[in-house]
Structure formats: structure tokens, C-alpha cells
Design a protein that fits this description.
- The complex is a heterodimer.
- Chain A is an alpha/beta fold.
- Chain A contains 21 helices and 22 strands.
- Chain B is of the alpha/beta class.
- Chain B has 11 helices and 14 strands.
- Classes of the chains: A alpha/beta, B alpha/beta.
- At the A-B interface, helix 1, strand 9, helix 10, helix 12 and helix 13 of A face strand 1, strand 2, helix 2, helix 4 and helix 10 of B.
């Protein structure tokens, strides 16, 4: 195998750098990637990650279907994991075959040359014994004997071969630490914490990490090393957070700020299950997280908990949301607080369980019988999941309504560095308890005149027994009513209650705006980092574009129409066939909405957006 | 404070058909609640959909008429979130055992402390007369004009299959036994299933009459009471005895059987083998069992969740989210 472009001892200064770890799903690529990310964040880089799991938990070793990837971008002003990577680590031939397409022109590939034996090549369906040539790769390839070096490092450890091979990822991590000038002490510290209860495993990994680092040092002459720019970061205490964890923590913050206990009723479903995992751990903060018998029981038990006075939450993905539809309608009717989290994945049906999409918007907005208006919000990044989970809870409680939070696999599994908020950074959530002076005249549908939210009488705290239910109720008495005029009135009240929430959410903002910008790029939810980077690049390339990213979808921010009408061209980019574009078009028929759509189960690439915007503007 | 049945009645007019067994069951529930003496505002009644599920509207307690089949799931969340409340869940044979079958068995398995009243009339009444999962094979209804071609569930069997710890049975018009089993169900900590044989005047009149007919009821049913001999019959001269691996009904003084041969009911024994046999008696060879058949204490889901929360809270000792996060992997930017 050739290594055509081996450079000699160059140091390259980079604004940001993207690394893709690629190997068997059992190779520990996610762990190596995570540690690399955390070290970088600790050094003052901004970071963004994208784990790319195979759908199969353990596909046959070395097969193309079993390749697991983890891409991380670190550096200055990082908002996406990067379209392409500067450095690709391929642990075996299958990983190389699946991942070389993600490599940037001029990038570097590191391969474990020990795995490029005839057997491995055959498993990856290579036809010749020169995979580099066969794939037409012209990039710099660094051949590292990862397996044999790992074995050598642990020769005296007395460990069995299987356990030794499990440490290969840490050898690579050591090599990357050297390559990117990350102190090995930082990596050792993380390994020590990770294996706190298994000191022998820590010792082995530490040995292998040093071996990888030293290996880099010893081949110094032949590869490029990198210095990465750091960010101006707001002072504070930081931690690394995945979107799904941030969502769980935002709910806990809302529980603390409202004084209402947090109840989660959930059922395992990819890619939302980490929310259940995290909240199950958070029994140490008083959270009651219950794994129920099915999706319907998840939402129904959450509604029961809300009726009982808790902040009721259920977490799921698209197929689960479909199952929960009827129950969400019950919460609309009963006007109880309820937070429904949908971490979107590719659909319809089982679809692409591990891949990202924004195809559940219509389901969230309309997926219920009858007229059942609801609040829909969408976080824009892994860290914004915290803020929007808090917001979803705040709106649910203060306005006595179900709220759907549309996260997605991309931001749910992605991570970034996050400043832990100060205690007073988030507002108190005002629980609409029955006012003392209204207790005598209280009826279930007596409302706050301003918000139109009904008051919440809490069992065990308020001696105000009352009956709720899915049947239409009389607006005044709360008794069952079949009256046509009363039904019309209640339908209108439920709609107006949601519309008035527009008074209680922030206005839409513009990014990258300039006097020259006459094109507005619009996105919603998890595409923010990519659209923002694309807008920056377009501006730098002489195509002035402003960006508005929607976090509040139902109701829309009050100034939406004003902003849309300020621009000559309005382009909505989303990972579906145009659901948000249709939604906006129906509300603003005077604005011509143009579209960029992708439904491949993959996030947008920055270059796809910049090309599509230029293409649209050229017409 | 003492309560009267009136304290548990709402001001809403009761809308069930005249002669419906639900009236008697509602009446028994009001009385049972007064006997229990738990305040209306500390009581919640949660239902699904169907004739029986209208019941919460007639209670002056917290009440929730939810969606079809989901009462048990809603009640589970309610009880876990607010364990100080006494929770009743009302369902019918369609609501509880067909569309809500999954929630039914899992609520029983989890042993969440709710009192589950299953009003069994072996028919769908609110949708006007289709067969239900408890209708017998061959049952003719609007949706089975030539008779059903499937076997029914026997609710008790389902409860035991789900490892239930409380099962009782009563007949709608037998107010005394109905109240007795409701009080026992509420006193039992854990999921308590009470099957109430209920008559639908309109769509399935007389479905239980073989059992409930006044003339023959004493011979076709047995009222089981913990610690008492299993005697039945108009003259209380019949009894249940063990017969190999099964049970047999005998007349005292005949075939050499004496009172000493008659079994004494033990509702509290943990093994459910005999309970199951008693619950499966159907009124033909052996009398149908009424009263509390099984009543065994076991850890309840809601109490265990609460205890676990308290335990880990105390062990970890975090004052709140921020303290927990600061104790994790962090770095500081000056």
C-alpha cells in the first residue's frame, strides 16, 4: 500500500479541525471521540459532535454494516460537527470504505495497518489487495500498526487477547492527542474517572494511551501536526453535554423553578431513550421516572401525574408520538400541563431509527383528532435543548397545555460544551394555582383572563374535588355539555389560549443580517448550526444572507410576518419535503416561500446549503 | 371525621339506563367510601371509556374520565405522583380487558396501589351491543350475528396470570358483599381487582342470571370469608372439600363428609394455587366464588418508587441540579 503524500514535520495552524473516528461498533469509537471532545472543550475550544451509529447493535465484525462513526469538530466558532473531516481514523478496511467519502480534500487518513490483511479486506468486500488504489484515494495515508503496538504495550499485563484489543481505541486517542497538541494528562484524568472502579483497566488504558502518544512523537518527521485556535468563551463552569441529557436537565430545572415534582412516563425508543436513562438516574434529585408498558402508558401516566399535580412528561420518537396522539388530545381537552418530547428520526413507520430528520412537524402540529391546538417548540442545538426543555415546561405549566418539543437525532446525540447556568439565571415558573379569592366560585374551567389558562386545583393540596375528562365540558360549570354553541365556544377558547402564548415568547431574531442582505434563510430546530455556518460562508463569499432560526413554531413569534416581508427572497431549509415552508406559506400567502429540502436521514452539509441558496438566487 | 355516602355524591344527574346494574354498584361505592372514611378530597376516581367509565362524574371526589382503555395507566401515573391519594380505577370488560388489556395486566403486575373495579357485563353497551372479550364462545351479538368463534377471558385467570395479589368478586345487586369487597380492596395495599358481575338491561339482560337468580343464588354461589369454612347453599349445608389436586362440592352428612372435611378459606396465603381454583369455580359443578378470594400483602410500586427516590436523594445529598452538575466533569473558564 502506498503512502504517496507523506509530509515532513509540518505544523499547521487551524481555525477549526474535524476528526472522524471510524471503526467496528465494538471498537470504542464513541468513547475515544468523547474523550477527545472533552479534552478539547477543556482547552477552550468550542466543540460539536455527531455520532453516527449503525442500526444494528453488533453487526458482524469487520463488515460494512457494522461501521460506527463519531465525528467531532473543535476550534474557534464551531457550530457544526463539520461537513467533512480533516483527519479520518479508520480502524479496519470496512471503516475506510464507509468513511473515506467524509474526508476533506487535503485531509489525512490514519489506518490501523494491522487490520488490512486479506481476511479484513474480504469482509469489507474489497476485490484487490490495495484498498487505497481501489477506492481511488489520493489523500495522505498514515499507516499505523495500532493492533501490534497495543499488543506490545500490554505484553506484560497478563491480559487476554480480547481485552487487549479493546484498548486499540485508546492507542489512537493517544496518537491524536499528540497530533493535535492535547496534553496526555487531560486524557489520563478522564480515563481515571471513567474506570474509577476498575483500576487494572485504567492502568492498561493509560499504558496504551502513552504508547500512542509516544508513537506520534517518534514518527514526528513524517506527519503534519496541528495547532487549533481557541474561542473567546464566557467565563463560568463548563461541562460537556449531549442534547438528550440537556433536555433531561432542562426539565429538572423547570421542576425546581415551578416547585412541581417531575414525573416521566416513557418507553424505550431510539434515539430518545437517553432522556429516560438520564431521568432514571436523577431519582437523586427527586425525579420519578417510570418505564411503562408501552408508549401510550407513558403519556397516559404522565397525564395522570399532571392531574395529580406534577409536571408530567413523556419522551419518545416519531412512531411513539403517533401512538400518543389520542392521549395528547385528552390533555388538550382537560387542559393539563404536559410535555411531550419527540427526538425525531427517519420515518415513516420504523423508518431509519438511528438517523436524523425533521419529518414529524406535521404530526406534532396536526396529528390528533378534532381541532386540538397545541404548543410546538424546537431546540436548535445540543445545549439549547436545556433552554427549550425548560421553555416547554414553563409554557405547559403557565398556560395549562400540552407542549411538544421537537428535538432530533442530530442534536439529541450530538454534544457541545455548555456553561452550567447560575442558580438565578432562569425565571421562576408561575404555577396557576386557584387564587384564594376565587376558591368559592371556582369551577374547573374558570380561567385567568389574560392567559385564558384555567386554574390548576391540585389533589392533596387543594380541597377542590372536581371531574375532568375527554368529553366536551360546559365553559362555565365544567359539567358535560352537548350544546352546539358551547362546543363552538370551547373550540375557540382552546385555540385562542394557544394563540395568546405569542405574547409570552421572544420575538424572532435575525443572524448575519446586514443592510445588503435581501435574502432570508429560514430554518427551525436542530439545523441551526449548519445553517448559521452556511450563512456566514455565504456572506463571506459575497452573497449577503440573513438567517432566522425558529424555536417557537406554534404559536409563531409575533413579528414573524414583519421579518418575512422585509426580504425580497425567503428560503426555508428543512430536513423534510417542505412541512414548515407549507405552514408558513399558509399563514403568509403574500410572501413567496422558496425551499431547500433533504430527506436522506442525514443532516444538511454546509456546502449543500450554500450551493442550494446560490442556485435559487441565480434563478 | 365521619362521612356519609351523601358526601361522595356529585350534583350530576346519573345517566345510566333504568335498571342498569351500575346504579347499585355506584350506591355500594358511595357507602364503601363512607365506611372507609377517607375524605372525598383525598380520593380520586379514574376511568376509561364505556358505560361504567361514566362513574367518576357521579362522585364528589377528584375524578378523571380519560380515554378508552387507558384508565389503569392514568391511575398509575396519578398514584405514583401523589401516593397520599386513595385511587379507584373503574373499567368495564371491553375497556379494561380488550383495548386496555395491556395496561390492566401491567398495573396488576406492578402492584401499584389502586383499587380496580371491573364491571363485567360481557357486552359493549355504549356502542350498542357488540360482544366483549368476556362473552362466551358462540355468543350472538350485532358484531357476531352467527355467534363468536373465540374463547373469552376469565378476569380472575388474567389477574393470577399477571401475578395479582388481590382478587375479589361480587354481584351488582348484592350490596352487602359489594361493599365488603370494595372496603377490602381499598384496605389492601397494592393493585386490588374487584370483578363486579353487572347486568346490562338493554343489550345483555340476564347474562349472569344463572348465578344471580334469587331462587338458586344460594346454591350456585359461595361467599368466601377469610378464616371461615367454605360453606354454601340455602341451608349452609354444602361445602368445598379438597379432592386430589382439585376441589369438590359436597353436602355435609352425605357420602361420609363431615364439617371437618370442609376447607377453611385462607385469603392471605402467598401461594395462589388454591385461590386460582376457587376463582375459576363457575357455578355449575362448583359454586361461583364471591367475596375476597386472594388478599396478600406485597411491596407496592408507588411506595417502592417513593422509597427509592428518598434513599438515593439521601445517599447522594445534592441540593439541586446545579450542585449535581458542578460535581460532574467540569472545567472553569476565567
Amino acid at each position: 500500500m502506498d503512502t504517496p503524500n507523506q509530509a515532513s514535520g509540518r505544523v499547521q495552524h487551524l481555525d477549526k479541525v474535524a476528526v472522524r473516528f471510524s471503526g467496528d461498533s465494538g471498537d470504542g469509537m464513541q468513547l475515544a471521540g468523547n474523550i477527545f471532545t472533552n479534552i478539547s472543550a477543556g482547552l477552550g475550544n468550542s466543540v460539536s459532535t455527531f455520532p453516527d451509529y449503525p442500526a444494528e447493535i453488533r453487526a458482524p465484525q469487520g463488515s460494512l454494516g457494522g461501521v460506527s462513526g463519531f465525528q467531532v469538530s473543535v476550534g474557534h466558532s464551531v457550530h457544526t460537527p463539520g461537513d467533512e473531516c480533516d483527519v479520518l481514523v479508520a480502524m479496519n478496511p470496512a471503516a475506510l470504505k464507509q468513511s473515506y467519502k467524509f474526508l476533506k480534500k487535503g485531509g489525512v487518513i490514519i489506518v490501523d495497518i494491522d487490520s488490512f490483511k486479506p481476511e479484513g479486506l474480504k469482509k469489507a468486500l474489497f476485490e484487490t489487495d490495495d484498498p487505497i488504489k481501489e477506492l481511488g484515494i489520493t489523500a495522505q495515508v498514515v499507516e499505523v500498526p495500532v493492533t501490534s503496538m497495543t499488543k506490545a504495550a500490554l505484553a506484560d499485563s497478563g491480559m487476554d487477547v480480547k481485552s487487549v484489543l479493546k484498548c486499540r481505541n485508546i492507542f489512537v486517542l493517544g496518537l491524536l492527542c499528540w497530533l493535535f497538541d492535547r496534553p496526555e494528562e487531560a486524557a489520563l484524568k478522564m480515563l481515571r474517572e471513567k474506570f474509577a472502579k476498575k483500576p487494572a483497566v485504567y492502568e492498561a488504558n493509560a499504558k496504551v494511551l502513552r504508547a500512542g502518544y509516544d508513537y506520534g512523537h517518534n514518527i514526528h518527521a513524517s506527519v503534519t501536526t496541528y495547532k487549533i485556535a481557541t474561542d473567546e468563551i464566557r467565563p463560568g463552569t463548563y461541562t460537556d453535554v449531549k442534547g438528550n441529557e440537556a433536555t433531561a436537565w432542562g426539565l429538572i430545572m423547570a421542576s425546581e423553578k415551578s416547585g412541581r415534582p417531575l414525573y416521566l412516563g416513557s418507553y424505550p425508543i431510539t434515539p430518545a431513550t437517553d432522556i429516560l436513562h438520564e431521568l432514571a438516574k436523577r431519582k437523586d434529585l427527586g425525579v420519578k421516572a417510570c418505564q411503562m408498558e408501552d408508549e401510550i402508558a407513558g403519556v397516559c401516566s404522565a397525564i395522570g401525574a399532571s392531574f395529580a399535580g406534577s409536571l408530567g412528561v413523556t419522551s419518545t420518537s416519531g412512531p411513539g408520538l403517533a401512538l400518543k396522539g389520542e392521549a395528547i388530545g385528552l390533555a388538550v381537552m382537560a387542559e393539563l400541563p404536559l410535555v411531550v418530547i419527540d427526538v425525531m428520526r427517519g420515518g415513516p413507520s420504523t423508518g431509519l431509527p438511528t438517523k436524523t430528520e425533521q419529518t414529524d412537524l406535521n404530526q406534532a402540529l396536526y396529528g390528533r383528532n378534532g381541532e386540538s391546538p397545541i404548543v410546538v417548540v424546537a431546540p436548535t442545538s445540543p445545549t439549547n435543548c436545556f433552554d427549550m426543555a425548560f421553555e416547554a415546561s414553563r409554557l405547559a405549566i403557565e398556560h395549562m397545555t400540552p407542549v411538544i418539543l421537537l428535538s432530533d437525532a442530530f442534536i439529541g446525540n450530538g454534544s457541545s460544551a455548555w456553561r452550567i447556568p447560575e442558580a438565578d439565571e432562569f425565571p421562576e415558573i408561575k404555577v396557576p394555582r386557584v387564587p384564594e379569592e376565587l376558591r368559592e366560585q371556582w369551577r374547573p374551567y374558570l380561567r385567568n383572563e389574560q392567559t385564558m389558562a384555567r386554574y390548576w386545583a391540585i389533589p392533596g393540596e387543594d380541597a377542590l374535588p372536581h371531574r375532568l375528562g375527554g368529553l366536551e365540558k360546559d365553559a362555565a360549570t365544567g359539567a358535560i355539555s352537548n350544546s352546539p354553541s358551547n362546543h363552538a365556544k370551547m373550540v375557540a377558547i382552546r385555540r385562542e389560549k394557544i394563540e395568546r402564548i405569542a405574547d409570552d415568547i421572544p420575538e424572532l431574531t435575525l443572524k448575519c443580517d446586514s443592510p445588503q442582505a435581501d435574502t432570508l434563510l429560514i430554518g427551525w430546530g436542530g439545523t441551526y448550526g449548519i445553517l448559521y455556518t452556511a450563512a456566514e460562508e455565504l456572506n463571506a463569499q459575497g452573497t449577503p444572507v440573513a438567517l432566522s432560526q425558529f424555536r417557537y413554531i406554534s404559536p409563531l413569534p409575533k413579528n414573524t410576518g414583519d421579518i418575512l416581508r422585509r426580504f425580497r427572497r425567503v428560503i426555508v431549509a428543512e430536513l423534510n419535503s417542505g412541512q414548515f415552508a407549507d405552514y408558513l406559506q399558509a399563514r403568509f400567502p403574500d410572501v413567496r416561500i422558496e425551499r431547500i429540502n433533504k430527506v436522506e436521514g442525514q443532516p444538511f452539509l454546509v456546502k449543500e446549503i450554500t450551493a442550494a441558496v446560490k442556485d435559487i438566487l441565480s434563478k | 371525621m365521619a362521612y356519609t355516602p351523601q358526601d361522595y355524591k356529585s350534583d350530576q344527574p346519573v345517566r345510566w339506563c333504568a335498571g342498569c346494574g351500575d346504579h347499585a354498584i355506584l350506591n355500594s361505592l358511595h357507602k364503601a367510601m363512607a365506611t372507609l372514611g377517607i375524605a372525598p378530597e383525598m380520593t380520586a376516581v379514574i376511568s376509561g371509556i364505556g358505560c361504567s367509565s361514566r362513574l367518576p362524574y357521579y362522585m364528589n371526589t377528584f375524578g378523571f374520565h380519560t380515554i378508552h382503555g387507558r384508565g389503569a395507566a392514568v391511575a398509575t401515573g396519578f398514584k405514583v405522583a401523589n401516593p397520599q391519594m386513595t385511587v379507584w380505577q373503574i373499567s368495564g370488560d371491553g375497556d379494561g380487558l380488550a383495548i386496555g388489556g395491556n395496561h390492566f395486566i401491567h398495573a396488576v403486575r406492578r402492584n401499584v396501589d389502586i383499587n380496580m373495579l371491573l364491571l363485567n357485563n360481557k357486552i359493549y353497551g355504549l356502542t350498542k351491543g357488540q360482544y366483549s372479550p368476556t362473552s362466551p364462545r358462540g355468543f350472538v351479538s350485532k358484531s357476531s350475528p352467527y355467534g363468536t368463534t373465540e374463547d373469552p377471558f376469565i378476569p380472575a385467570e388474567l389477574v393470577f396470570g399477571a401475578r395479582g395479589n388481590f382478587f375479589a368478586r361480587a354481584i351488582d345487586v348484592e350490596l352487602k358483599i359489594s361493599q365488603e369487597v370494595m372496603v377490602a380492596a381499598a384496605s389492601h395495599k397494592g393493585a386490588s381487582v374487584v370483578e363486579l358481575l353487572q347486568n346490562c338491561m338493554i343489550f345483555n339482560n340476564g347474562i349472569h342470571s344463572y348465578i344471580t337468580d334469587r331462587e338458586t343464588r344460594a346454591d350456585r354461589t359461595i361467599h368466601l370469608v377469610h378464616g371461615q369454612k367454605m360453606l354454601f347453599g340455602k341451608d349452609m349445608d354444602k361445602g368445598i372439600v379438597q379432592d386430589g389436586f382439585g376441589l369438590k362440592a359436597v353436602t355435609i352428612g352425605q357420602d361420609g363428609y363431615t364439617l371437618d372435611d370442609v376447607l377453611v378459606h385462607d385469603a392471605h396465603t402467598p401461594t395462589n394455587f388454591l385461590h386460582q381454583q376457587l376463582a375459576m369455580m363457575d357455578g355449575y359443578e362448583l359454586p361461583l366464588a364471591l367475596g375476597v378470594i386472594r388478599d396478600v400483602e406485597a411491596p407496592t410500586y408507588d411506595a417502592e418508587v417513593a422509597a427509592q427516590v428518598e434513599d438515593v436523594k439521601a445517599r447522594k445529598g445534592f441540593s439541586g441540579l446545579r450542585e449535581l452538575l458542578l460535581a460532574g466533569d467540569t472545567w472553569t473558564v476565567e
